[in-house]
Design brief:
The complex is a heterodimer of chains A (272) and B (236).
Chain A lengths: L1 H8 L2 H26 L3 H20 L4 H19 L7 H23 L4 H8 L7 H20 L1 H9 L1 H6 L4 H23 L4 H15 L3 H26 L3 H24 L1
Helix pairs in contact in A: 2-7, 2-10, 2-11, 2-12, 3-4, 3-5, 3-10, 3-11, 4-5, 4-10, 6-10, 7-10, 11-12, 11-13, 12-13
Chain B lengths: L1 E12 L2 E12 L3 E5 L6 H8 L7 E6 L9 E3 L4 H4 L5 H6 L14 H13 L15 H15 L3 E5 L7 H17 L3 E6 L2 H7 L2 E6 L1 E7 H4 L3 H12 L1
Parallel strand pairs in B: 3-7, 3-8, 5-6, 6-7
Antiparallel strand pairs in B: 1-2, 1-4, 8-9
Classes of the chains: A mainly alpha (272), B alpha/beta (236).
C-alpha cells in the first residue's frame, strides 16, 4: 500500500494535484469560517452552480471558460449577498433560485451544443488528477493573494463577521469587507470547481469550519484548525481515491464527513 | 457643555419622515433614556447618532473632539452571535476595530484597554472562555466592555436588557448606574422599560413620530406625556 502511494506521489500529475488541491482547500476553509458564521453556507453551493452554468455557456460559445466564469460568479456573489439583506426575496430562497436556475441553463446549453460529454462531467465532478501546469499556476496566483488578504484583514473580517452593526458604528467599512469576502469566495469557488467539481466545491467551504467549531472555542483556533483539517482531509481523500480507485472529489468530501464526526464526538466528550 | 445637541432634527427614509422636530441635548455625565413604542423612531435616531444616517433636515451637532465613531455602541444581539465561537478577549478587542491603523492589527495600547475594560466590568476571569457558553448577562457585559474600548466618554445602548432574566436585568442596570456615576460615562439608553428609565436616568426623551417629552426625569411624571404613558400602563 505504501509502495503504491510512493509511486503515485512521484508522478508529476499527482504532485500537481496535491499542490493545487491543498492551497485551494485551505483558502476555501478560511473563507468558509466567515460564511458559515454569517449564515451564508449555501452561497458556496449557489455560486458553484452559477460557475458551472457560466463555464458551459462559455465553452458553447467558444470563449475561455475561466475568463467568463470569474466575472459572472463575482457578480452573482454580490447579488446574493445583497439579496440576503433585502426583504423581497429572502437569502436562502434567493440562493436556491440562482443555483437551480444557473444549473438548468448550463445543462440546456451543454445539450444544445456538445451533449453530456466529458467536459460536462469534468465540471460537474472535477478533474483534479488532470491539472495542467498552468492550472497550478492559476491556483497559486489566486490562493496566495487570498491568504495574504485574509491574514492582513483578519481582525476586521472577524469584527464584521461577529457584529456588523457594531463594526459599522465604530467606523469599519463593513460593506468593503463583505465585498472582499464575496470576491475572494467567488475566485476560490471557480477554481475549486475544476478540482472538486461544481457539485462538491461547497463542501470544501462548509465542512472544515463546521468541523473545527465542534471543538474550538476561539475564532483564531477555528480559523487555523479549519485550514489544517481541510488540508489533511484533502490528502486522505486523494490517497483513498488512488488506492481504491474511487472518484477523487467524493472521496475528499467523505474524508471531511469522517473528520466532522470525529470532532463532533470529541466535542461532546469535552463538554460533558 | 453639551456633548450632542439636536436642533429641529427630522429623520426618515426615502423622503418620508419617521420622526420630526427633535430638539434635545446630551450633557457630559448625563444618563438619557429614550423611550417610545416600536416604530416611534428610536432605531432611526440611533443610526443618526452613530453617523450611519443623515438628517433630512435640522442639525445634529457633536461637541468638538467627539467623533461619531467614538461612541461606544451596544447593539441588540443577533441570533448568529449567540453561538459564535470566539473567546471573550477576542470579542472585547474588536471594540478597537474602528481605529485607523496598519491593516487593523491591534496595538499594545488596544490590548491593555481591552483588559482594563474587562476588569471594570468584572469579566477578567472569563477572558479565555467561549462567548457562546456564557449566560445572557455575561454576554452583555462582554459587549459592554467592547463598547467601552471604542469610547472615552459616551455609551449608546439599544435595549440592553432584552432577553435577560430579572436578576441579570437588575444587574445590568446597576452596572450602568455604576459606570455613569463612578466612571463619569455619559449614557444614552434606548428602552421599552419605562420603570427602569424612571429609576435610573437623569433625563428622558419620549418619542412618538415627534418629540413628546424631553427634560429631567423627575419632571416626566408630571408632564402630559408622562401622565398618558403611566395611565396607559396602569390600565393595561
Amino acid at each position: 500500500m505504501l509502495d503504491t502511494l510512493v509511486l503515485m506521489f512521484s508522478q508529476p500529475f499527482m504532485q500537481r494535484a496535491v499542490f493545487g488541491g491543498i492551497v485551494i482547500s485551505v483558502c476555501a476553509a478560511l473563507l468558509g469560517v466567515s460564511l458559515v458564521l454569517k449564515r451564508y453556507s449555501m452561497i458556496g453551493d449557489g455560486l458553484s452552480h452559477v460557475g458551472f452554468g457560466a463555464v458551459v455557456v462559455a465553452s458553447a460559445l467558444n470563449f475561455a471558460p475561466l475568463a467568463v466564469a470569474i466575472p459572472v460568479v463575482v457578480i452573482a456573489a454580490f447579488l446574493l449577498l445583497r439579496l440576503g439583506e433585502s426583504s423581497e426575496i429572502k437569502g436562502d430562497a434567493a440562493v436556491a433560485l440562482v443555483s437551480t436556475g444557473a444549473l438548468a441553463i448550463g445543462v440546456v446549453a451543454s445539450s444544445l451544443t456538445t451533449g453530456m460529454n466529458q467536459d460536462f462531467n469534468s465540471y460537474m465532478f472535477g478533474t483534479i488528477l488532470g491539472l495542467s501546469k498552468s492550472d497550478v499556476i492559476v491556483s497559486l496566483a489566486v490562493s496566495i493573494p487570498v491568504l495574504i488578504l485574509f491574514i492582513l484583514f483578519y481582525n476586521r473580517i472577524f469584527a464584521v463577521t461577529f457584529d456588523e452593526s457594531f463594526a459599522k458604528a465604530v467606523g469599519v467599512k463593513a460593506g468593503v469587507y463583505n465585498a472582499l469576502v464575496a470576491v475572494l469566495t467567488s475566485l476560490v469557488i471557480v477554481l475549486g470547481m475544476r478540482l472538486m467539481g461544481a457539485l462538491l466545491i461547497s463542501s470544501l467551504v462548509i465542512f472544515p469550519s463546521l468541523t473545527s467549531m465542534r471543538v474550538c472555542k476561539t475564532f483564531r483556533s477555528v480559523v487555523i484548525t479549519s485550514g489544517i483539517v481541510s488540508a489533511v482531509c484533502f490528502l486522505f481523500g486523494i490517497c483513498a481515491s488512488v488506492l481504491y480507485d474511487l472518484p477523487t472529489g467524493a472521496s475528499i468530501v467523505i474524508s471531511n464527513i469522517v473528520a466532522f464526526v470525529i470532532f463532533w464526538i470529541v466535542g461532546k466528550i469535552k463538554n460533558s | 457643555m453639551a456633548l450632542i445637541e439636536a436642533k429641529n432634527v427630522c429623520l426618515g427614509y426615502d423622503g418620508h419622515d419617521v420622526v420630526t422636530n427633535l430638539n434635545f441635548h446630551v450633557d457630559r455625565g448625563d444618563y438619557l433614556c429614550v423611550v417610545g413604542e416600536n416604530g416611534s423612531g428610536k432605531s432611526t435616531l440611533i443610526k443618526a447618532l452613530l453617523g450611519l444616517k443623515k438628517c433630512s433636515s435640522g442639525h445634529l451637532h457633536f461637541l468638538e473632539g467627539l467623533k461619531q465613531n467614538q461612541i461606544g455602541y451596544l447593539p441588540q444581539q443577533t441570533a448568529a452571535q449567540k453561538d459564535f465561537p470566539a473567546s471573550v478577549y477576542e470579542v472585547v478587542l474588536t471594540g478597537n476595530a474602528g481605529k485607523k491603523k496598519f491593516f487593523g492589527f491591534y496595538s499594545k495600547n488596544d490590548k491593555r484597554k481591552a483588559l482594563d475594560n474587562m476588569s471594570i466590568l468584572g469579566i477578567s476571569e472569563l477572558k479565555n472562555k467561549c462567548y457562546r457558553n456564557l449566560s445572557g448577562g455575561q454576554q452583555q457585559r462582554v459587549l459592554l466592555a467592547r463598547a467601552l474600548c471604542a469610547t472615552e466618554s459616551l455609551l449608546l445602548l439599544d435595549e440592553p436588557v432584552t432577553g435577560l432574566d430579572p436578576v441579570a436585568t437588575e444587574d445590568m442596570y446597576d452596572l450602568l448606574y455604576h459606570l455613569n456615576r463612578d466612571h463619569g460615562i455619559t449614557i444614552i439608553m434606548v428602552s421599552h422599560d419605562i420603570r427602569a428609565a424612571l429609576r435610573y436616568s437623569t433625563r428622558m426623551l419620549h418619542l412618538r413620530g415627534s418629540q413628546l417629552y424631553f427634560g429631567k426625569t423627575c419632571d416626566y411624571l408630571s408632564s402630559e406625556a408622562g401622565r398618558i404613558f403611566m395611565g396607559g400602563e396602569d390600565n393595561a
